[in-house]
Amino acid sequence: MNSVMITGCSSGFGLETARFFFEKGWHVIATMRKPDNSLFPTSDRLSILELDVTDQNSIDRAVREAGPIDVLINNAGIGYMSPFENTSDEIVHKLFDTNTFGTFNMVRAVVPQMRGRKAGTIINLSSSTTLKPLTFMSTYTASKAAVTAYTECLALELAPLGIRTVLIIPGLSPSTSFGKNAGDKISKSGEPADEYKALMEKVQSEFQREMLVQELTKPEDVVNAIWQAVTDSNCPVCLPAGPDAVALSQ
């Protein structure tokens, strides 16, 4: 039976992906910082493990408990929107620790067993903000742009070892908890300077309007892209997910 380990399964894309693979008959290792057994049915094909991608001991323990992993999906991430001038070093480090170094550390923990079997698939999630820059998203976008560049290079070095690596680039999605997961990870930024306030109001208004009129990414778009990446050995290294991401990538 194929096994898949997914980070960040408490909500959003991670939760929907875990449910999808479970319905397909896979052994699913659903990980999250605060395990919630109520999210999934009880089954011997489902393991719910505590995992904080910013904690190496937590990663090592979860990978050890998971056993053989055929597919790793690095989905865990946090969002943040603020003028960079107001973005403290603490915030910068928290974003990169989760979105970037969390992905790095998960790959480093799982690759040895895949290399030993000369088989495996690694899926990393980036963001369409790397395709179209958005105001006040500089730090978040930088953390995801690093994942994009890293994955494209990683695919080249792992392919000769029998390990496939694919980057999923989701578009904007109103159904995800973007930013909410940062709650206990990031302290609030200071009050922005007056020069930023009018622009922030304008940007937020335009963003809300786009969310209402534009065809955005649905969870199933991301799940389907991940499924394609896992099941189609000829899929490209970079897969946009969602109509807005597809449009930006062309």
Automatic annotation (TrEMBL):
This is SDR family oxidoreductase. Transmembrane segments: none annotated. Gene3D superfamilies: NAD(P)-binding Rossmann-like Domain. The lineage of its organism: Bacteria, Pseudomonadati, Pseudomonadota, Gammaproteobacteria, Cellvibrionales. Keywords: Oxidoreductase. It comes from Microbulbifer spongiae. PANTHER family: SHORT CHAIN DEHYDROGENASE, SHORT-CHAIN DEHYDROGENASE_REDUCTASE FAMILY PROTEIN. Belongs to the short-chain dehydrogenases/reductases (SDR) family.
